[in-house]
Write a structure and sequence with these properties.
Blueprint: H1 2-5, H2 8-17, H3 22-43, H4 48-66
Helix pairs in contact: 3-4
């Protein structure tokens, strides 16, 4: 849920607070990406707000992965 509800600049503090190891963090990132991809496909033509939210999550997950 970190990618859905937290801005990028506080995500690392959240990760430290919950003591998420690398594997747990990668699983969470994968879950967020998977959910956002399904959400984008479903809402792309019918709900621009939800589609935009999905795009934001996808962008943040990919940006974090590149760092």
């Amino acid at each position: 849920m970190a990618w859905y509800v937290l801005p990028g600049d506080v995500r690392e503090a959240f990760r430290a607070a919950v003591s998420a190891d690398d594997a747990s963090w990668a699983r969470g990132r994968g879950w967020a990406l998977s959910a956002a991809l399904v959400e984008l496909r479903y809402y792309r033509d019918t709900n621009p707000v939800m589609a935009g939210h999905a795009r934001r999550v996808i962008r943040e997950v990919l940006d974090e992965r590149e760092r």
